[in-house]
Amino acid sequence: MYMGKEIKTIIKEMRRHIGATTATVQHEDPFRVLIATVLSQRTRDENTGKAAEALFKKYNTPKKLARARVTDIEKLIRPSGFYKVKARRVKEISKILLDNYNGRVPEDIESLLKLPGVGRKTANCVLVYAFGTPSIPVDTHVHRISNRLGLVHTKTPAQTEAALMKSVPKRYWLTVNELMVKFGQRVCKPIKPRCGICKLKKICRYYRSKAH
Ligand code: SF4
């Protein structure tokens, strides 16, 4: 089990790798965060960016998106993949926000989880990136890196989230997702992690298990 001091070292070294010295999370429009995170499911960041930009150019509020034609939404978000399912979901979400939440995105995880297509990762992303509420969104990067380092020993992202919430001090929760996603894209890649340049190899369980 990692101690507070080691967690601090992990956070510090990841920040050095990605070139950030302080928490870099900025709070954005909750509606955009929610819809863009739904669009980001099962696709790459660049595809999400293109789809979200096209969509918000035309429909940037729950009211406008709830009234939009599904076929038009499909056309705009096509780069995100699974665009037929996602188009229906974002329209439905917009309607629910209008009908049940006065056009606002709810700030509690229970309400967020009731929205169509919103699982724990998406809900936690909204809490962190829209509201600055300490939470740990666990995507494939966070799940993989946490297990490689030995921070957790888990099989599913939900288990990883629960384990990280126990082992990582709350003051770091807001930055864990951003740090690990960037660290996972640049250093601890899914295939062929760049252990040679990694400043965490001394304490990394995966690296040590490979008997370097
Ligand atoms: S040593 Fe390798 S496996 Fe461990 S965190 Fe660094 S890049 Fe990932």
What would your notes on this structure say?
- The structure is a single chain.
- The chain has helices at residues 4-18, 30-39, 45-58, 62-67, 70-77, 83-101, 109-113, 120-131, 140-149, 157-167, 173-186, 205-209.
- With 212 residues, it is an all-alpha fold.
- Helix 1 (4-18) packs across helix 11, helix 2 (30-39) crosses helix 3 (45-58) and helix 9 (140-149) packs across helix 11.
- The relative contact order is 0.14.
- Bound molecules: iron/sulfur cluster.
Overall mean pLDDT: 94
Radius of gyration computed on alpha carbons: 18 Å
> For this structure, what is the CATH homologous superfamily of the largest domain?
Hypothetical protein, domain 2
Helix proportion: 55-70%
Which second-level CATH architecture of the largest domain applies?
A: Orthogonal Bundle
Structural class from helices and strands?
mainly alpha
Uncertain stretches of 5 or more adjacent residues: none
Present as ligands are: iron/sulfur cluster
Task: Enter the CATH topology name of the largest domain.
Answer: Endonuclease III, domain 1
Q: What is the total tally of β strands? A: 0
Series of secondary-structure elements, N-terminal to C-terminal: HHHHHHHHHHHH
The CATH class of the largest domain turns out to be: Mainly Alpha
Terminal residue distance: 22 Å
Number of helices: 12
In short:
This protein is an all-alpha fold and 212 residues long.
Descriptive labels:
mainly alpha; 2 domains; Endonuclease III, domain 1; binds iron/sulfur cluster; single chain; 212 residues; elongated; Endonuclease Iii, domain 2
